Amino acid sequence: MKFRTIVTKKGTIILAGKNAKNNEELIKQVEPEEIVLHTVSPGSPFVNIKGKPRLGDVKKAAIFCARHSQDWRDNKKDVKVHKFKGKDVYKRKNMKTGTFEVKNFKIIKVKKKDILKWK
Description:
6-stranded antiparallel β-sheet, globular
């Protein structure tokens, strides 16, 4: 697979980029109504929940995003993650590879204890 991938117990597919170039590819395949996550701080994978999320999928994806972020690597504390839809992601001409802007988002606080439980 070209993305980091997890499949929840309920069968939901969650994809994450591996680097800046891979994040570009990930964002290109996101559908307008699908959920995307990225840490508030720079330096994390973009994470995409394929299809309509089921109960617990957003939390699992947020932990997945936080666990693979530079914020977690450098600070080992709670991580704030932006949650938004594919239609709210855009790129300006001069933005570097793997960088995007988002116009509508919510913030999810991922607790340190939940990240530590990640396997």
